[in-house]
Amino acid sequence: TASSSTPVTVSGITTAIAIAAGSRHTCAVLVDGTVKCWGYNGSGQLGNGSTNNSSTPVVVSGITTAIAITAGLNHTCVVLSDGTAICWGNNGSGQLGDGTMTSSSIPVVVNGMITVTAVSGGSGHTCVRLSNSVVECWGDNSGGQLGNGTTTSSLTPVAVSGVTTATAIAAGSGHTCAILSGGTVRCWGYNLYGQLGNGTSAIIPTPVTVNGLLLIPDTIAPTNTTGANFISGGAVYATSPVVVLALAATDAVGVTGYYASESAITPTAGAAGWVAVTSTTAYAASVAFTLSNGDGTKTVYVWLRDAGGNVSTAMSDTILLDTTAPVISVVAAVGITATGATITWTTNEASDSQVEYGLDTTYGSSTTLDTTLVTSHSVPLSGLTVSTLYHYRVKSRDAVGNLATSADFTFTPTDPPPATLSTLTLNPTSVIGGNASTGTATLTVAAPSGGQVVTLSTSNTAVATVPASVTVAAGATSATFTVTTSAVASSTVVTISGVSGGVTQTADLTVLPGASDTGLKNPTANAAETSSAGDNNGYETTPANAQALDGLFAVDTDSGSNTNTSCTNSGKDRHRFYNYGLTIPGGATIKGIEVQLNAKVDSTSGSPIICVQLSWDGGTTWTTTKSTTTLGTSAATFALGSSTDTWGRTWSVNDFTDANFRVRVIDVASNASRDFFLDWVAVRINY
After folding, report:
1. pLDDT tens digits for 175-209?
2. Which of 595, 610, 594, 591 is nearest to 649 (CA)?
3. Which residues, 6+ apart, have CB-to-CB distance to 555 below 8 Å?
């Protein structure tokens, strides 16, 4: 906090484009649209959510698109890129413009401001210029500094009387001035020291013309004639961050500088980063520019300015910065034969393909460059010598020209090993007699030219038969065959055998008698439905008690949220039971499904019943409901469905896996306070 009679560098500020100083605080707009402030913070004028002073810059909360800034006595305001204005700090006179007199240590929005182009803060008031060249002010008006013909302060913006062509504004401690488009200057407010410039010292609450002052400013910005493709001659890629910008502009008075940035925020004429040039009415030059770190698409914006501080419109161009070679990985020699191999690898970006190979690390041979840009590479080698060690490395160049070369790898061309029988499998592994199973014979390697024969046999030809052999086609690794079965009186296991390349493999097939059932099966898992299901808690007390017939009950207290008696009403409690461990032979036809419940209720009032639905896809889709008769206060068993009832659909064996099959129990009564007790939810499948 030591004073200095010479300039000192502000800590951490390197990209400022605008600055403003208040009584005892300072703020700057950075090139990325954020704002930082430092100094006295007794009224929150630093905008960081505190009132602690700071001798180094702190970030103003929530601002990312600031384009202009002003600092009043103890408050601060900025204009955002969307034309709104926000302020923070002291608000004792309403100078924040949010309709209150409450000071704020974080930015607040000025009421009704959406087309602001400039802002200026005084001691206790603030003024803005709008895009239609009118001026509005708010805050302290004890000296008429709001310019609306009164000395009444205002907590929200009021229009300054008679100013419709303002080009610039400035707010003093208790007065305000504006430059009009014709070059005249008008002021209003306190005038004790003649600060209004009209030859009097009287307070004047409406604008008066400053005597004998006519400014004829240069208000015409340079014309930015920079071409659309101005980066490095219109190049699509750059392998170095240093590029060349071809700039051009004209100005009747003279172009005096250019500004290049990767930010789209228009700089002020006094912002840091402008590069001065010798004033000329027709400027054209090629200049170096360093792109930001990191590969990727870069957008560069350029502006030109003149001596009057007028800034041109922006021109922009994009270029892809790529300074990194592809990353090569997973290099391998595959498909090795006596005279050849295929070299494969991957790259993290699309690039071309080439392999260098030979008897040592000087290589000496290379494949023809494949210029197709890919990430998965495959290059064949041929004409090699069997049992000879070969060295190789791979090379890939990306679209920009960055080249990557792998480390050295080796392989030896060899005769392929003979094919033998690796596995013999059956699908399904159990069938009802009279149905077929499909066998698959798989070799250890691809079959040679002419194919390879697998000899087949069965341990019980009366029950299951197979063809004498099956041939795996040349270049293939497997072949399928059919196992034909006959009807049996009892479950019979038949062993199917295959022999090839001197190796025998076997697989067992269980042949089952015709019609059967699974027996009554208990669930091993359950879950309450918690959405659109009455109280959304199902059987909330010991639901696992319903997984076995043991006299212990799962309890659903207050079975729903309404008195509707429909099984499908969303006001009824619902609970799912699953993981029945049902085992049904492959190819079986489902003939019927039976669900048995053991249940009771606390009272027969409300005609309580239990409804049941079945799902075959994990609970996404359900059958129509079946329901019990009215439950009593003593436990009883209820059977829904039968050995010939398929619940209105055709079922497949896969529908009954633990992943797919579900039973949903729905408690229904016209009395929502009915309590249900459930001891058993068993299922039997007939097939």
Report:
1. 999 988 767 899 999 999 999 999 999 999 999 98
2. 591
3. 539, 540, 541, 542, 675, 676, 677, 678
